[in-house]
Amino acid sequence: MKILTIDDQQLILLSVERRLSELGYSVKTANTGQMGIELFDSFEPDLVLVDINMPDMSGLEVVKHIKSGAKKGVPVLVMSGNTQENIIMDGFTLGIDDYMKKPVSLDEMAARIKRLVGAPVISDDSQVSNNARMLQKNCVGVVIPCYNEEERLLSTEFKDFAHKNLGYHLCFVNDGSTDKTLEVLEKLKKGSESNISIYNCEQNGGKAEAVRQGMLHLAKDEQLDYIGFLDADLSTDFRDFDDLVETLDQSNFKIVSGSRMSRMGANITKESARKIISMTINLIIRTILRMPFNDTQCGAKVMDRSVVPLLFDKPFITKWLFDVEMFIRMRKHYGKTEAKKFICEQPLKRWIHADGSKLSMKDSVKIVGQLAKIAFVYR
C-alpha cells in the first residue's frame, strides 16, 4: 500500500515516513503542494496525508486538485495545526475523508490510516513501538548551551523528549568544553540526527555567545516556527518549556520568557542566599530596563523566528546578562510601549536550582558592574 505525505516541515515528514515504513507502507514525501501534486500523478498512492498551511500552495488546493481529477476516489487525510472551523468545513466540503488536529500521536495517525485503507499484509503491529510519540503543531528549535556538562548530559531526558515530541529540534552548542562533553553529545545525537544536532565552538566564549551562535544557526532552518533556549541543567522542566511554546502560539507575543517567581502551586526552589542576591539584581535590572520584569535571567525563553536577527545578529557585551540586552534591544527597536506588548513573562510551574551551576556567588557580585556597563552602552 502506498501513501503520499505532503508537509512543508521536514521534521514532520521524516517522523511520519519512518513510522509508516515501520508499519509496512510504501511512503513518498513532498515538502511543497506543487511537488505533492506531481507525485500524486506519478506515484499513484492509495492514500494522501496532507498539511493545510504550506507557503507555496495550501493543502486545500492540493485536495481540490485530487478530488476534481480522475483519481478522486483516493482517500485524503488532513493532518494540521489549523483548528479554524471554517477551514475544517471547507476541507470536508472538498471531499476529505478525515481531519486530525496537531498535536497528534503517531499511533492515532496510524490507526486512522488503517481505518481508511487497511494495513499492509507484512505489517506486524506487535513489533512497532507504542510510546505515545507526538507530532507537534509547530516545529520548534531549542538551543542548549553546554560547557563541561558531560555528567548532566548523561541524563536520558534530552533524548526521551526529542524522541517523543516530534517537531522539536534540540541543538546542543558545545562552548569549548575541556571535558568529554562533545563525546557525550555525539553519542546522544546518534540515531536521532533528524531532531538532535551539535554546534561546536572550538573556544569557550561564554553562555551569551554560545546561545547567540546557536540561535543564528537554527534561524537558517526555515521549517522552524519558533526558536528558544534552555539551560543544560534542566532546572526548567521540558513540560514548562512546552507551556511557553503554547503561550507563544496562542498569542501575538514575540517572546515568552519563563519566570521563577513563586506562585501558588509552583515548585520553585532556590538557595536562600541566592534568592536574596537574585532579588537585588532584579531590582537593578528593572531600573535599567524601565520595564516591569520580575525575572529576566531565567534560562528558558522562546520566540518567534522573526525577531532572532534583531536580538542576536550583534554580539552581546556581557557573557551572562545577554537576556537583559535582548530586552533592551526589543525596547529600542519597537519602543517601550510596543515592546511590553510583545514580551510575555510566564511563571514556571517548577524550577529547581541545580547543583554545579556555572554562576557562582562571586560571579553574582560581578554582575552589578556588568549591569553598569550595559546601562552605559545602551544609554
Give a brief rundown of this model:
One of its GO terms (biological process) is protein N-linked glycosylation. It is found in: Endoplasmic reticulum membrane. The chain contains 14 helices and 15 strands.
* Computed Rg: 23 Å
CATH architecture of the largest domain: Alpha-Beta Complex
CATH superfamily of the largest domain: Spore Coat Polysaccharide Biosynthesis Protein SpsA, Chain A
Largest sheet: 8 strands, mixed
Total number of domains: 2
Count of alpha/pi helices = 14
Structural class call reads alpha/beta
Tell me, rounded to a whole number, the average pLDDT. 88
Pattern of helices and strands = EHEHEHEHEEHEHEHEHEHEEHEHHHEEH
CATH fold name of the largest domain, please? Answer: Spore Coat Polysaccharide Biosynthesis Protein SpsA, Chain A
Helix content: 40-55%
InterPro entries: CheY-like_superfamily (IPR011006), DPG_synthase (IPR035518), Glyco_trans_2-like (IPR001173), Nucleotide-diphossugar_trans (IPR029044), Sig_transdc_resp-reg_receiver (IPR001789)
Domain Response regulatory: 2-117
Enzyme class: transferase
EC number: 2.4.1.117
Explain how this protein is built.
The chain is an alpha/beta fold. It folds into two domains: 2-127, Response regulator (Rossmann fold); 134-377, Spore Coat Polysaccharide Biosynthesis Protein SpsA, Chain A, CATH 3.90.550.10. It is built from 14 helices and 15 strands. Helix 1 links the parallel strand 1 and strand 2 (26-30). The longest helix is centred in the last third of the chain and has 18 residues, at 272-289. The termini are far apart. The model has no long low-confidence stretch (mean pLDDT 88).
